[in-house]
Amino acid sequence: MAFRQIAILLLLASLFPLTGYSWGFFAHQRINRLAVYTLPPEMVGFYKKHIRYITENAVNPDRRRYAVAGEAPRHYIDLDVYGDSALYKMPRYWQQAVEKYGEDTLMAHGIIPWHINRMKFQLTQAFKDRNVDQILRLSADLGHYIADASVPLHTTRNYNGQLSGQRGIHAFWESRLPEMLSDNYDFFVGQARYIEQPQLKAWDIVASAHLALDSVLGFEQELTLEFDEEKKYSYEVRGNLTTRVYSREFSEAYHRRLNGQVERQMRLAIHSVASYWFTAWVDAGQPDLRQFASTLSAEEQERLRMELKEYEQGPHLPREEGESHLHQNTWIPGRRE
Ligand SMILES: [Zn+2]
After folding, report:
1. Could you tell me which of 59, 61, 74, 258 has the fewest CB atoms within 10 Å of its CB?
2. Per the domain annotation, does 322 fall within a domain?
3. Other C-beta atoms within 10 Å of 310: how many?
4. What span, in angstroms and rounded, lies between the C-alpha atoms of 220 and 209?
5. Is residue 106's pLDDT more than 50?
6. Who's near 326: CB < 8 A, 6+ residues apart?
7. Residue 333 belongs to some domain of the structure
8. Is residue 53 part of a domain?
């Protein structure tokens, strides 16, 4: 490759370094979609009828981040801010957590486990109200937050490896690896199960993610020592953008070392999403979903159109399904999902 071309690539790479997002469009949509198939017979018909909605809207909470104040902290929790054994010491319930740390502190470092529980309550209420608009919206959103909670890098302030010289590891783990390799994952996760303690279960999900964090960061560091810089990365051209990505060779080596971790966390997410939906429905008294309206209201359709429009016109690059790579690797300072 000519020196000039390399220089241009390096320049572009520095303009668009690797960055971090939540699971990426691909994995979020796949998790919500697959969750539908694990529902019991009384629920699966309704969710299958709306599977396109549940799938396509799996990423709405990320889109809303720019329009809705207070949205950002719902996607993560920086556990390490609270000390080494925070995972075990943090108050499980919101009220106790507020008493101990104050709401401002909690909002500053992320509230994902409490937000999952809150969404579950709202979904239960929506089932009681037989409000199809709300049931679908909350189901899709809840799926998103649960999926985020199962990502190790959503449980640390070093969420993109920016504190350990590993910038870009976020999108690597949760977008590039599943996009490249998840066709070989086993997504048969068994039936959705009733969750006795939804708030504690949210913490179990966060715990499983957080306990995997050392491997996520450590294995990348180990492998980096074994790979030459030019073998670690490759460049992809999409449209008129060139982005630096982890090479296939490095990705596969990392994936082998993680020994199924991404697959395990995706499976956990799928099963948990379905189990929360199921639990909300049971807690609402198991309403007969066959009698529910089969389409969204005109108001809700309009709201969705507006939300999408606002997102597309917002102060950021749009990310569309099929182009996710291109945009997921485009770093926007201060942005976090
Ligand atoms: Zn997110």
Report:
1. 258
2. no
3. 14
4. 17
5. yes
6. 238, 239, 241, 243
7. no
8. yes
Residue 29 has pLDDT above 80, yes or no: yes
The token duo for 132 is: 């199809």
42 neighbors 286 (Cβ within 8 angstroms): yes
CA distance 118 to 122: 6
Q: Side-chain half-sphere of 86: how many Cα atoms within 13 Å?
A: 19
Gyration radius from the chain CA atoms: 20
pLDDT at 128 over 60: yes
Its domain, for residue 151, covers: 29-168+185-221+269-307
Residue-level pLDDT at 15: 35
Specify if 316 maps to a domain.
no
Rounded-to-integer distance, Cα 253 and Cα 260, Å: 12
How remote is the CA of residue 144 from the centroid of ligand 1, in Å? Answer: 6
Q: Write the CA distances from 39 to 35, 193, 257, 271, 294, integer angstroms.
A: 7, 9, 33, 9, 18
Instruction: Count how many residues are written for the chain.
Output: 337
Distance CA 75, CA 142 (A): 11
- Distance (Å) from CA 24 to ligand 1 centroid: 8
CATH number for the domain that contains residue 137:
1.10.575
**Upper half-sphere CA count for residue 278 (Cβ side, 13 Å):** 21
Q: How many domains does the chain have?
A: 1
What would the pLDDT profile of 137-180 be if each residue is shown by its tens digit? 999 999 999 999 999 999 999 999 999 999 999 999 999 999 99
63 CA distance to ligand 1 middle (Å): 9
Rounded to the nearest angstrom, the distance between the alpha carbon of 176 and the centre of ligand 1 is 16
Q: Is 60 exceeded by the pLDDT of residue 21?
A: no
Residue 263 in tokens: 């697959």
